[in-house]
């Protein structure tokens, strides 16, 4: 089945640690996105990538980093510089050829700072 | 700055009733307006979408109404069912270019039997 796989489903981070969230898609989509979801704030864009080896900051990129070495993979690193990382993180992908939406979301990773 | 404003934040509807969620936007360059449905612990899934060249789009019990002059659009869920209980997000984007989606803050819908 084609889709987006995010792992792990739950992640716990200690203060001062960097953690990496995985996002893999087998949809042959060109563009990939990372969103952060907090209660009452909707989905906010962290980073996005339109093609391999290229990515741009979204609205809340501070304290996060990404890489796009393969078309299928777009990992997100939450660094120790992110002061309030506890949130639900969603990865999405989209084919650039689609005139309509074409966004497919993963099932998310819930990150908690302990 | 919230590009898309959504209300209400939460909504409780009796089974069989009509659920109405409203959204407003400022950027007149937006030309694509999708609605997403999200169940707890899951990612959002596309429910229905509309382009600004039509005023209404209906798919089953779900209808989008679009008012271009007022820069507002709304989701109507007819004959609401307990299985419709979820969080609903409106969104907007420009289909050309980066095509990033700008989301509303979400509405938690509860349909009581």
Q: Which helices and strands appear, and what pairs or packs with what?
A:
The complex is a heterodimer of chains A (114) and B (113).
Chain A: E1 4-7, E2 10-13, E3 19-25, E4 31-38, E5 42-51, E6 54-57, E7 64-66, E8 76-78, E9 87-94, E10 104-105, E11 109-113
Parallel strand pairs in A: 2-11
Antiparallel strand pairs in A: 1-3, 3-8, 4-5, 4-9, 5-6, 7-8, 9-10, 9-11
Chain B: E1 4-7, E2 10-14, E3 19-25, E4 33-38, E5 45-50, E6 56-59, E7 62-67, E8 72-77, E9 86-92, E10 102-103, E11 107-112
Parallel strand pairs in B: 2-11
Antiparallel strand pairs in B: 1-3, 3-8, 4-5, 4-9, 6-7, 7-8, 9-10, 9-11
Biggest sheet of chain A, in brief? 7 strands, mixed
Identify low-pLDDT runs of chain B. Answer: none
Helix fraction of chain B by DSSP (H/I, runs of at least 4): under 10%
The H/E string of chain B reads: EEEEEEEEEEE
Mean pLDDT of chain A: 91
**Morphology call of chain B:** globular
Number of E-state strands of chain A = 11
Structural class of chain B: mainly beta
Strand content of chain B: over 45%
Query: What fraction of residues of chain A sit in β-strands?
Result: over 45%
